[in-house]
C-alpha cells in the first residue's frame, strides 16, 4: 500500500507540473518571418509539399487540400463543379483540377463527369429518383432523365445498367425504362390489337398507333407468337402481320376468281400485300382443284384455256388469240401459251404477238396477187424505159459477157447499107443508133455482173430495186383478212395495221420474187417486139436508100441541071425526110421512147405535105438522150432543112 501511494503521489506531481507548464506563457516565440523561412527550407529539402492560396497569405499540404475537397463535395450533396471548388478553396484552378483527377484515379467511388466531381452516393440517389419516377409513370425515357438530372446519356445509361434490378425496379428497352405492370398492360393491348386486325398490319404502323417503341413491340409480339396467343402469321422478316381471317378470305377470293374467269393476274395477288411470290402461291393454292394451272409471264390460266385455244387453231386460216379466248393476255403471255402448241404445228406461224396464221393460207393469199403483179410489171415497163435498156444489157452479157459494149452482134444498128448496082452503086454508112450511154459495162469477166450505168441511165430505176411496197397491197390484204374474219363469225372487224404489216413482211419476199419474174417476162416480150420493130425499121431504111439512089440516077440522066436540082430538093424533102424519121424511130425504139417512136413512124409513112416540119422533127430528136445519136440526127435534120442532097449525103 505504501508503494502504491508513492506512485500515485508521483503521478499527481507530474500532472501538476504539466498543468503548470501548460498554463505558463512561453518565454521565447518565433517570428512570422522565421516561420516562413523554416517552411520554405523544409519545402526546398523535399520534406513537405505545400499548396499556396491564390492571395499567397496561406498554404496547405496536399493531404489537407484533398481533405477540404472531400468536405466541399459532401457539403454540396456529393456533386460539385470543379470551378466552384476553386472559388471555395481559393486555390489555383489548375492545381484543383490536378488534385481532383488524382482523387478520382485513386478512389473508385469518385467520378469526374463534364467538369463536375460526383460521388457514388449521388449516383445511388439518382437511381432512387429514377425508380420513383418510373413507379409513378410506368415508363420513362433516357432523354427525359437527361433533362431532369443534367447528366450525359452515357452516364445515365451506366447508372441505369448498374442499379436495374436492385434500386431501379423495371426493365430497359433501347432508351426507355418500363415497369412490369406497364409491360403487362401493354402486352394485353398488343394482343387485343393484333387479334382484332382484319387486314395486314405492319409492326411500324402498330407501334405508332399503340405509342410504343418498335423494338419493345417486336419483343412483345415474339413472346405472344411463341405462346400461341396471336391468330395470324408474320411475313417479310416479321415486319408485317397477316391475320388468319384475312389469309383465308384472300385464298377463297383467289380460288373463286380463278374458277369464274379461268385466269388470275399475278399483279393482283401481289397488290394485296400478302404474297411476295405469287407464282408459287397460286400454284400451291390451285393445285388442290385437281388441275395444274399454266403459269405465264403476268398471270396463271386454267388448262381449259389452253385446250380451247388448241381447238380454235384446228383448220384456222388466221386467228386473233385475243378474240379466240376470253382471258385478257399480254403479248408475252400469248407467246408463252402458244410456244408449246406451235412447236408441234409447223403449218402455223405466229405474227404481231397475238395472231396466228396458216402457212397454206399465206400461200393462197400470195397467189391472189398474180393479176396485180402482172399489171404492175406492165405499168413499170411502160412508165420507165430504162428497165428495157437494162434488159437489153443483161441479154448482151448473157451472149458475150466480155464484149457487151461492142458495136457488133445484137447491138448493131443498120450498119452499112448498099444501094443501087453497077459502077454507080454507092455504099452509104448509116450511124449506129444504139444508145451507148444506156448500156452498162462488164465489170468482171469472171463474175459477169453489170457495173453502174453511164450518164444516159442515171435517171432510170434499177430493175432489182423494184419491189412491192406495203401501200401497194395493204387494201387487198385488209379485204382478205376481213373476209376471213367475217367467215369465222367474229363480228366487228379487228384487223389492225400491225397485223397487215406483219402479213406483208411474211409475203414480201415471195411477192418481190414473183414481181421480178413477171417483170422479166414482160421485158423479154417487149424486147422481142422492139427487136422486130427495129428490124422493120432497118428494112424500110434500106428500101428508102435504094429509092433515093434510083431517083437520083434518074434525075442525073435527064441532062437538065435545073430540073435535076429541083428533083433533088423534092427528093430530100420526101424520101430524105422519110429516111430521117425512120432512123429517128429506130433510135427512139432503142432508147425505149415508145411515144417518140410512134410519132416518127407516123411521119415516115405520111406524104411530104402531111409530114413533120423541121422544127417538129427537131423536137422529137431532142427527146433522145444526149449523145452521138441525137447530135447525128440533128445534123441530118439541118441538112433536110437546107434542101441539099449533097449535105444529106455527107451526113
From TrEMBL:
Q: Name one GO cellular component term.
A: endoplasmic reticulum membrane
- Pfam families the UniProt entry points to: E3_UFM1_ligase (PF09743), UFL1 (PF23659)
Assigned keywords, A-Z: Transferase, Ubl conjugation pathway
Comp. bias (Low complexity): 435-456
Stretches the record annotates as Disordered: 384-466
GO annotation, biological process:
protein K69-linked ufmylation; regulation of proteasomal ubiquitin-dependent protein catabolic process; response to endoplasmic reticulum stress
What InterPro entries does the annotation carry? Ufl1 (IPR018611), Ufl1_dom (IPR056580), Ufl1_N (IPR056579)
**Which residues does the UniProt record annotate as the domain E3 UFM1-protein ligase 1-like N-terminal?**
10-281
Q: Where is the E3 UFM1-protein ligase 1-like domain?
A: 536-650
Locate the transmembrane regions by residue number.
none
Q: Which GO terms label this protein's molecular function in UniProt?
A: UFM1 ligase activity
Gly residues compositional bias, start-end: 409-424
Question: Which segment of the chain is annotated as a signal peptide?
Answer: none
Q: Which family does it belong to?
A: Belongs to the UFL1 family.
Q: What is this protein called?
A: E3 UFM1-protein ligase 1 homolog
Which species does the entry assign this protein to? Macrostomum lignano
Amino acid at each position: 500500500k505504501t508503494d502504491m501511494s508513492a506512485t500515485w503521489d508521483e503521478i499527481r506531481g507530474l500532472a501538476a507540473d504539466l498543468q503548470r507548464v501548460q498554463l505558463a506563457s512561453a518565454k521565447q516565440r518565433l517570428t512570422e518571418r522565421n516561420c516562413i523561412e523554416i517552411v520554405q527550407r523544409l519545402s526546398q529539402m523535399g520534406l513537405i509539399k505545400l499548396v499556396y492560396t491564390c492571395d499567397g497569405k496561406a498554404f496547405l499540404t496536399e493531404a489537407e487540400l484533398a481533405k477540404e475537397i472531400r468536405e466541399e463535395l459532401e457539403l454540396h450533396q456529393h456533386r460539385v463543379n470543379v470551378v466552384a471548388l476553386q472559388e471555395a478553396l481559393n486555390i489555383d484552378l489548375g492545381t484543383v483540377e490536378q488534385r481532383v483527377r488524382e482523387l478520382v484515379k485513386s478512389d473508385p467511388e469518385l467520378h469526374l463527369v463534364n467538369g463536375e466531381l460526383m460521388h457514388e452516393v449521388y449516383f445511388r440517389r439518382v437511381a432512387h429518383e429514377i425508380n420513383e419516377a418510373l413507379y409513378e409513370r410506368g415508363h420513362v425515357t433516357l432523354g427525359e432523365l437527361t433533362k431532369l438530372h443534367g447528366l450525359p446519356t452515357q452516364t445515365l445509361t451506366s447508372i441505369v445498367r448498374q442499379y436495374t434490378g436492385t434500386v431501379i425496379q423495371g426493365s430497359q428497352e433501347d432508351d426507355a425504362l418500363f415497369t412490369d405492370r406497364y409491360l403487362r398492360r401493354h402486352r394485353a393491348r398488343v394482343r387485343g390489337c393484333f387479334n382484332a386486325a382484319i387486314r395486314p398490319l405492319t409492326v411500324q404502323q402498330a407501334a405508332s398507333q399503340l405509342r410504343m417503341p418498335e423494338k419493345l413491340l417486336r419483343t412483345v409480339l415474339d413472346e405472344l407468337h411463341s405462346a400461341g396467343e396471336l391468330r395470324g402469321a408474320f411475313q417479310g422478316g416479321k415486319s408485317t402481320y397477316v391475320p388468319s381471317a384475312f389469309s383465308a378470305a384472300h385464298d377463297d377470293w383467289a380460288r373463286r376468281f380463278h374458277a369464274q374467269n379461268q385466269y388470275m393476274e399475278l399483279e393482283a395477288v401481289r397488290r394485296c400485300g400478302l404474297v411476295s411470290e405469287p407464282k408459287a402461291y397460286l400454284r400451291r393454292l390451285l393445285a388442290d382443284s385437281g388441275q395444274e394451272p399454266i403459269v405465264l409471264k403476268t398471270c396463271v390460266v386454267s388448262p381449259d384455256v389452253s385446250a380451247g385455244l388448241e381447238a380454235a387453231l384446228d383448220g384456222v386460216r388466221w386467228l386473233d388469240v385475243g378474240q379466240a379466248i376470253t382471258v385478257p393476255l399480254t403479248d408475252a403471255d400469248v407467246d408463252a401459251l402458244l410456244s408449246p402448241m406451235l412447236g408441234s404445228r409447223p403449218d402455223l406461224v405466229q405474227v404481231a404477238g397475238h395472231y396466228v396464221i396458216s402457212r397454206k393460207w399465206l400461200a393462197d393469199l400470195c397467189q391472189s396477187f398474180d393479176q396485180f403483179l402482172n399489171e404492175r410489171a406492165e405499168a413499170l415497163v411502160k412508165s420507165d424505159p430504162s428497165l428495157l435498156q437494162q434488159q437489153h444489157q443483161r441479154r448482151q452479157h448473157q451472149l458475150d459477157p466480155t464484149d457487151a459494149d461492142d458495136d457488133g452482134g445484137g447491138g448493131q444498128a443498120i450498119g452499112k447499107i448498099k444501094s443501087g448496082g453497077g459502077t454507080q452503086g454507092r455504099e452509104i454508112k448509116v450511124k449506129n443508133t444504139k444508145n451507148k450511154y444506156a448500156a452498162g459495162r462488164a465489170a468482171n469477166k469472171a463474175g459477169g455482173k453489170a457495173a453502174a450505168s453511164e450518164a444516159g441511165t442515171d435517171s432510170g430505176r434499177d430493175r432489182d430495186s423494184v419491189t412491192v411496197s406495203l401501200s401497194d397491197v395493204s387494201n387487198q390484204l385488209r379485204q382478205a383478212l376481213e373476209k376471213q374474219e367475217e367467215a369465222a363469225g367474229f363480228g366487228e372487224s379487228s384487223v389492225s395495221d400491225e397485223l397487215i404489216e406483219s402479213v406483208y413482211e411474211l409475203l414480201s419476199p415471195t411477192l418481190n420474187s414473183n414481181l421480178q419474174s413477171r417483170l422479166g417476162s414482160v421485158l423479154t416480150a417487149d424486147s422481142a417486139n422492139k427487136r422486130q420493130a427495129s428490124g422493120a425499121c432497118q428494112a424500110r431504111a434500106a428500101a428508102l436508100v435504094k429509092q433515093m439512089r434510083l431517083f437520083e440516077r434518074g434525075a442525073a440522066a435527064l441532062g437538065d441541071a435545073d430540073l435535076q436540082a429541083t428533083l433533088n430538093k423534092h427528093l430530100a424533102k420526101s424520101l430524105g425526110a422519110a429516111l430521117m424519121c425512120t432512123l429517128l424511130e429506130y433510135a427512139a425504139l432503142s432508147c425505149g421512147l415508145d411515144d417518140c417512136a410512134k410519132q416518127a413512124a407516123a411521119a415516115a409513112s405520111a406524104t411530104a405535105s402531111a409530114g413533120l416540119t423541121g422544127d417538129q422533127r427537131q423536137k422529137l430528136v431532142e427527146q433522145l438522150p444526149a449523145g452521138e445519136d441525137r447530135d447525128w440526127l440533128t445534123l441530118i435534120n439541118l441538112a433536110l432543112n437546107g434542101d441539099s442532097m449533097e449535105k444529106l449525103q455527107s451526113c
